[in-house]
Specification:
alpha/beta; Aminopeptidase; 7-stranded mixed β-sheet; 8 helices; 32% helix; 13% strand; globular
Length: 312
């Protein structure tokens, strides 16, 4: 399926601002081809359906879904359907130094942290720290859901880990563990765009292939402060080889995004820092980041899991 844009000849002021109700309907089939294929589009079922699924959806579409799942249509009670870009990620550039991919924000952080945690789990550790990652749903729509970062999932999970692994543990043990912990809110960061460099504050222009970005904001849209930044800088310097670090502050006359960091810090009282690998075209259907920065990202997570206990 596809959602084609209106051609520029019919829209001489191409300010991309589609109406979500009328302009974003996907094209999946035409009536004439469905008829030629012997499967004329039927908007509703002829027979009564106790689940009402067939009364709400095109029969041709339901037949395709059922066929792919090796089911009969009358076995489908309900379903959720979302469209997304299914083109594979690709490398590009003179030296294949860039990654072009859908949803780098925030699958890049998820993949890098998961790789590092798996690597950490293969080693033997004498300390008693618990290393974990948490990957949430719904960050782009506010995180307020049962599986989003603005739920009680973080505190509840840490409490259950402590209560399930420490004999005779109490609520006080949980509070002590929280205060000893360090949470890295790992999103992506805005790399300076070579065609729009004026959008960045002159002294804070994160560059692709120049290291992981610490994100600062005086209004606490990001959770980085001097102490959390100092800790991460030391960790990055202790990596082998060291991971370069960049700083990002949005222009004072510009708007700032946010992350899951403030929500988790507020709900759990856990020390938090906001970081990210630099990227271009954030929130577009095809985003861009640097291959080397993904290696930096993985290396930074690895040294965090390995060395935070000693450093703290």
């Amino acid at each position: 399926m596809n959602i084609p844009s209106l051609c520029i000849h019919l829209d001489r002021e191409p300010n991309f601002n589609p109406n979500k109700e009328t302009h974003l309907k996907p094209i999946i089939a035409t009536n004439v081809i469905d008829q030629l294929m012997g499967e004329a589009i039927k908007p509703f079922a002829d027979k009564e359906d106790i689940y009402q699924v067939e009364q709400k959806h095109f029969i041709t579409f339901l037949d395709r879904v059922a066929g792919d799942l090796e089911l009969n249509v009358d076995q489908i009670v309900d379903f959720e359907f979302a469209a997304y870009d299914n083109h594979r990620p690709a490398l590009f550039g003179l030296h294949n130094e860039f990654v072009a991919s859908p949803r780098l924000d925030n699958l890049a952080s998820s993949l890098s942290s998961l790789d590092s945690l798996i690597e950490y789990s293969r080693e033997t550790h004498e300390d008693k720290q618990a290393a974990m990652i948490m990957l949430f749903d719904h960050e782009e729509i506010g995180s307020r859901s049962a599986t989003g970062a603005d739920s009680n999932m973080v505190g509840e999970t840490i409490e259950r880990v402590i209560m399930g692994t420490v004999a005779n543990s109490t609520k006080e043990d949980y509070y002590r563990a929280i205060k000893k912990s360090f949470f890295i809110s790992a999103d992506m960061a805005h790399a300076v765009h070579p065609n729009y460099s004026e959008k960045h504050q002159a002294a804070h222009m994160p560059k692709i292939h120049s290291g992981i970005v610490l994100k600062f904001n005086a209004n606490q849209r990001y959770m980085t402060d001097s102490s959390s930044a100092a800790l991460l800088r030391v960790l990055a310097a202790n990596a082998e080889p060291p991971v370069p670090i960049q700083d990002f502050i949005v222009k004072q006359d510009g708007l700032c995004g946010s992350t899951i960091g403030p929500a988790i810090a507020a709900s759990c009282g856990i020390k938090t820092i906001d970081i990210g690998a630099p990227q271009l075209s954030m929130h577009s259907i095809r985003e861009t980041c640097g291959v080397v920065d993904l290696l930096y990202y993985q290396r930074l997570f690895a040294v965090f899991f390995k060395s935070y206990g000693d450093l703290s």
